[in-house]
Write a structure and sequence with these properties.
This protein is an alpha/beta fold. Helices cover 49% and strands 18% of the residues. The protein contains twelve helices and nine strands. It has an eight-stranded mixed barrel with strand order 1-2-4-5-6-7-8-9, surrounded by seven helices. α8 links the parallel β6 and β7. The protein is globular and about 50 Å long. Bound molecules: ligand C2E and magnesium ion (3 copies). One magnesium ion binds next to loops. It comes from Planococcus rifietoensis.
Length: 288
């Protein structure tokens, strides 16, 4: 007993944990100034209809170039959620993405949507739908061109989530469930809310070429999405082999094969190549 308690208390003060708590404090404090310092930017990654090679949307992905260097969202988003900064940061991302879409529309580019990631804490804010509505009006973007990506974690408060989903659907914005297949209650999430898009996580796609069992699971999830009346996006496509295989399932693809997430001007250049040569992607990745 004493020994294990001693071991635990030793672990509590281990250099690793101390390092990570210092790092977290540094991130928390750097986050406070990040917006006013203009340290954030948004990158855009195309979503491609595999049947015809058309770009149908872009996912907006937040980038932070901070005094601490480039910090990935997987590291700072959880901290931003914890310290509450996620509300103002998330609102900024949504406005930025809508402004970009609005600019593309004014240039006369083809209709696409923009997908914006929204964390559970931000989504469950009772004023979230109102904030979305205000941004849509301010940026002059049609609601149906905006898709909100949530994960099953919003289901921790099912009643609130269901009410907010209804508010957003009344506005006309689209709803996607992200990282499908990675959590504990993915099925529960799609059972309880009506979604427009099911995004299948990269981890479910990674092994399909070498494993019949993985392919059977992926095919079944695609079918599930379609039976629910949702569009299906397969995330993390990196190779021509994967793209060729997925094409048979009539899904939307997203991944480094088509393009990494890029600043808006570069993303638009990749988009141009797709417009010029819509089936070029099936022969070689587009260079930029
Ligand atoms: P996500 O929403 O599932 O986004 C997909 C992630 O996979 C992105 O990582 C993207 O860069 C990466 N990715 C795309 N294609 C490929 C591929 O072919 N191979 C590989 N290895 N990776 C690929 P990123 O940008 O680092 O974002 C990580 C996560 O951070 C996102 O996962 C999302 O959950 C969160 N995130 C990003 N931006 C925001 C934001 O504005 N707000 C919130 N709340 N979360 C965000
Ligand atoms: Mg996402
Ligand atoms: Mg995802
Ligand atoms: Mg994710």
């Amino acid at each position: 007993m004493a020994k294990s308690a001693g071991k635990e208390s030793y672990e509590f003060f281990s250099p690793d944990l101390l390092d990570s708590s210092i790092r977290k404090q540094e991130i928390t404090s750097a986050l406070q100034q990040a917006l006013v310092n203009g340290e954030f930017s948004v990158h855009y990654q195309p979503q491609v209809e595999l049947m015809n090679g058309q770009v149908i949307g872009f996912e907006a992905l937040l980038r932070w170039n901070s005094a601490l260097g480039a910090v990935p969202p997987s590291e700072f988003i959880p901290v931003a959620e914890e310290c509450g900064a996620i509300h103002s940061i998330g609102e900024w991302v949504l406005r930025e993405a809508c402004q970009q879409l609005s600019a593309w529309r004014r240039e006369g580019r083809p209709d696409v949507h923009v997908s914006v990631n929204v964390s559970a804490k931000q989504f469950l804010d009772p004023e979230f739908a109102e904030k979305v509505a205000r941004i849509l009006i301010a940026t002059n973007v049609p609601a149906e061109c905006v898709e909100i990506e949530i994960t099953e974690s919003v289901m921790i408060d099912l009643d609130t989530a269901a009410a907010l989903v209804e508010e957003l659907q009344a506005l006309g914005v689209k709803l996607a469930i992200d990282d499908f297949g990675t959590g504990y209650s993915s099925l529960n999430a799609v059972k309880n809310i009506q979604i427009d898009t099911l995004k299948i996580d990269k981890s479910l796609v990674d092994e399909v070429l070498g494993s019949d069992r993985s392919m059977a699971i992926l095919a079944t999830i695609i079918e599930l999405g379609k039976n629910l009346g949702a569009d299906v996006v397969v995330e993390g496509l990196e190779t021509l082999e994967q793209v060729t295989l997925m094409r048979q399932y009539e899904v939307i693809g997203q991944g480094y094969y088509f393009s990494r997430p890029l600043p808006a001007d570069k993303a638009a250049r990749v988009w141009n190549k797709y417009l010029e040569q819509p089936d070029g992607m099936f022969h070689a990745p587009i260079l930029y």
